[in-house]
């Protein structure tokens, strides 16, 4: 017999299918109401991946009833066979979620009901990262796992299960560029995590001087030279867009391989434009964007390893709570639309500083953070102050 990849579910598939997977019972089966409400918030035709789908009852059926294009994966051959019988023609892969080729595609939603806590912690983190990458901007992820960090033996398979707990899940999600927006409990005491991917962060374009420069590939870097020309680097290819009144067509012919150039706003600066905000690109700094949705849309890399990044989280702590363990506040002040604080800390014997500005832009909050060696602070602090004051919401 081949090795079990389903964390013991192949061995009890008959019992599981006869219980939860029986169509006559599905109306009342645990979790159905939560999954239905989640599914109905998608537009018809949206694509949703059901991870660890089991026999597809009730979740895949509910997703399909909501008019969604459903894909499913499960590692248990018996579960997959039961699924195929119920949902002929619905794409399903017999594979582990860790190795699923469906992660080569993108989805509007991903569901993992009763799955994540069956996996080892490293595999849980991996799946969260894969989900983050596979979700389209604005996409949603719903999964279940106990709220507290806990280990137990699965009631059906007798195999170890472990929840990493809400605190750790929130951190893993955030690191992957996702936001935990809500939690809920159902009648069967299953704890739900409602997760979203920001709708507008992927896009980083440079605008100014009547032009909009849109990178064609990622990762990429924008920078400006002393003459104000914009440089876009993609791998070893580079395009220079001169900040004079070159017509858009002339610039485009130079840069066709790595950028699209259209007409843009006539601002007398190059601005980095993302979905929720824009900031000027400071001279001597390089804006590096991975192209994926990261917690920040880009990192601005400056002298002596200094870095500035912008985040627009759903919830933003007060300025006094931006002090991490081992850090102490050394300066603070206010801005036109917010406040800033500078903290100092020692890492591996070296002194570092972080300067956080918490600003209100277009009805939401943004945090602009500078991180640098302590001795570089006087040099780079004015750039941070300038950016934090200049940032504009969309
Ligand atoms: C508790 S059942 C949940 C099934 C279904 N989501 C439901 O709502 O009834 C867990 C399912 O995850 C599958 N599974 C376990 N580990 C897996 C893995 N590493 N990759 C893919 N599927 C896995 C099992 O075969 C089983 O069908």
Short description:
This protein has helices at residues 13-19, 32-40, 59-65, 77-86, 121-134, 165-175, 248-255, 377-390; strands at residues 47-51, 69-74, 92-94, 107-112, 135-144, 150-153, 160-163, 178-185, 191-197, 205-208, 211-215, 220-224, 230-234, 237-241, 259-263, 271-273, 277-280, 286-289, 299-301, 307-311, 328-335, 338-347, 350-361, 364-373, 392-393. It is of the alpha+beta class and 394 residues long.
Descriptive account of the structure:
It is a single chain. The chain folds into 3 domains: 184 residues, Rossmann fold; 99 residues, no CATH class; 93 residues, Mog1/PsbP, alpha/beta/alpha sandwich (Protein Transport Mog1p, Chain A, 3-Layer(aba) Sandwich). The model has no long low-confidence stretch (mean pLDDT 89). By secondary structure, it is of the alpha+beta class. A hairpin with a 5-residue loop joins strand 12 and strand 13. The chain is 20% helix and 36% strand. The strands form 4 sheets. A 10-stranded antiparallel sheet has the order 14-13-12-18-19-20-24-23-22-21. It binds S-adenosylmethionine.
